[in-house]
Amino acid sequence: MVERHIQVVEPEDNVATALREIEAGETLEVAVGDSTVTVEALADVEFGHKIALEEIPAGETIVKYGKSIGNATEDIDAGAWVHVHNVESNYGRGDLAADEAEAEA
Amino acid sequence: MSEFLGYERDDGSVGIRNHVAIISTAPYANDTVKRAAEITENTVPITHPLGRCQTKPDVFQTYRTLLGYGTHPNVYGTVVVAHAGEIVDGDELASDVAETGRPSASINIHEEKGVMNALQATVNAAQEMVLDASDQRRVPADYSNLTFGINCATSDTTSGLCQHKATAKAVWRLIDDHGGRGVFAETAEFFGGEHELAERAVNDDVKQEVLDRVEHWDQRLKDTGYDVRGAQPTPDNMDGGLTTIEEKSLGALVKSGNGPIQDIVDYGAKIPGDSGMYIMDTPGHGAESVTGIGAGGAHFMVISTGQGHTLSNAIMPTIKITGNPNSRERVPEETDVDVSEALVGDEDYDWAADQLWDNLTRIVDGKLTMSEALGESQFAIHRIGPST
C-alpha cells in the first residue's frame, strides 16, 4: 500500500521526504505522480530526511520540487539516505570561486 | 468589507498596537534607553550596536530602519535618545517622526549634561506619551489597511510541505479578499527558485531587479572564499533534513504563494501603499529580515517555522506557525498555531489556513501572541559594509 508518510513533491523528483522514521531494510511503496515506486531503505532515515527513489550517479542532479537542489558527490543507490554527506550545492560556493582564482593565478 | 479594531494615526495608517518606542541612535545611548524603558510602563526599547562610525550606505540603512520603527503604524509616539553629535542624528530622527503627526522627543546625553539628566528627561517624555497612548481607544478600520509580513525560522523539510502552504493561503486571503498587502524577504533564500519567482513580477523591470538582487547575494557569498553551507543551510536546518540552500529556498518560496509580485524594495524601506505582494531585499538571517520587515511597516508577521523558534519583534506581533508535529515540544511557549495535522493527520491545507487566519484576526484585534506574552523580541539591523 502506498505510504502517505513518504512524500514526493513533483513527479520528476528523484528523492522523497520521510514524514516518519524509516528503518533500514523496510520496503517502501511511494507515490510518484500517478505511479508507484517501490524501494528498499538501505539505511535508517530520520523524520524529515530524504531517501533516493532511484540510482543517482555521482555528479547528477538531485531533484526535489521538480528542480535542482544540488548534485550527487558520489554514486547514490536507490533507497539510500540523501543528505549533506552525498550532496553539494551549486550556490554560495566561495570555496570553488577561490579554487578557480588560485588556478588562474 | 471586514473590519478590525485599530488605532488611527494622523498619517492615515492604523495600528494594531499602541506602543511608545524609545529609540537609541548609537551604542552609547543603549543603556539609557534600556533603563528608561524599565522605569516607564508600556514602552519598547530599541537598541543596537550601530549608528556611529558607519559608511554612508550603512548610515542610510540604519537611519531608514530606526525611522521605520519610530513611525510604525503600531507606534503611538517615539522618544529618541542620542549620545552626542552622531552621523545618525537624533534631532533629525525625532523631527522626521514628528512629521507623521506622532508625539516625538529628542534627548541628547551630552546636551543634558550627563546620563542621569538624560534618563530623567527620557522618562519624563515617555511617561507623558504612555499616559496619552493609554487614553486612545481602538476604532473599527478596514482590513485593506493591513500589511502581512512573512518569514521562515529554523526551516526544515516540513516547512515547504505544510506550514508555508497555510501561510501562503492566509496572506493571499488578505490581498485578494480584503485589498491588503503582503511582504516576504530573505533574498539569499531564493537560490534555485529565482527564475520562477522573477516570472511572477508585474513587469520586466521588477523581474530583472529580482534576478539582479539574487545574483548580487550569490556574488557576496562567493567573495567570502568559503562554501556557504553551515551559514545556509544552518546546522538546525540540516538536522531537520534540509541538505542545500537550494532545497531550503524552494521550500521557503512556497510561503509566498503563486500570485504576482508588485515590487522588490530595499532593506528597511516602507512597503508601498497599493494592494499586493512585495519583496524586501534582506539576508536569510531571521533577526535581520524580521527587523527589516518591521521597519517596512508590516502590522504583524507570520513566522512559519519547521523546528520551532523564538524569533519575534517588539513592535510587530509575530505569530508562529509550525507543521512539524515535534516542534511544539521543542519550543512550546512560542508556538501560536500547530497545523501538523495537515501533514501527518487527516486535515487539509484549507483547514490549516483557517486555523492561522482565525488566530491572526484575533491578534490583530489585540490578543497577545505567545512571544508578546513572554516579552520576548530581537532587534538586528542588517549591515552592508565595514565600520570605520
UniProtKB/TrEMBL annotation, chain B:
InterPro entries: GD_AH_C, GD_AH_second, UxaA_altronate/galactarate_dh. It comes from the Archaea. Signal peptide: none annotated. Residues 144-386 form the D-galactarate/Altronate dehydratase C-terminal domain. GO terms for biological process: D-galacturonate catabolic process. The keyword Oxidoreductase does not apply. Belongs to the UxaA family. This is Galactarate dehydratase.
